[in-house]
Structures are given as C-alpha cells and as structure tokens.
Fold:
Amino acid sequence: MATVRKSIDLKSFPELTDDEHAELARLDRMSDEAIDYSDIAELDASFWRPHAAPEAPEAGIDETEPRSAAAGFNFVIYQSRTGTYSVQFLRGQEVIFETSGFASVSQARGAIELIKTHAPNMPTRLVG
Structure:
C-alpha cells in the first residue's frame, strides 16, 4: 500500500463561495436535536476497545517494568482489530502518542526500548 502525502497551506485557504457560507451558517444555527443520525450504525463496546487503554495486565500492560507512578506514565501494547500491534504512551488515561503496524509483540517492545533509549536526547523537527 502506497503512502499518500499532501501538504495544506494553513495560511491561505481558498475563499468560500456564497453557497458555502450559507451552508455553514445554516449548520451553525441547527440544534443538536435536529441532526439526523439514522444513517450511522450503532457502535458496540468492541469498536472502542482498541482505542481505549487496556485495564488489566493481560490486556497489554507489562507489570515487570518500572512505572513513573507519580506522573502516571505508561507504555501499553495492544492488538488492533486488524491483528497488528500498537504501542500507546499514556499519562493516566490520556494518549500522549501512539504507534501502529507492528507484526508482533516483540517488535512493539523493541520500539518501546528505542524510545526509552533515544528520546531524552532526540531533537524535535517541525514538518510542514
């Protein structure tokens, strides 16, 4: 699968047409009760599971690693619905960042080790 990259100049959006301005104004005036959700499928708990932090060690938290308990920081490895493994870096329940696409837990653990080893001295680049 090829990666597609697009750049958007946030300082020079195209001008909206009169019709687009009118549509935005109409939507802005619409109450929440007037929104038709009938064409949206209901989502059960299994949909949200991959996006939430696992709650138990068997769900991916490695209890053998020291935690930064005072700040509540943790790495979490979980398996997505597609079968690949992802790593989340959490502060409490807040996802600070997330990676995805690892074929195995060992690859995900390797990524965590790289982050732990290199992050303290890693420069930050602003792209775009």
Notes: The first strand starts at residue 73 and ends at 79. The mean pLDDT is 78.
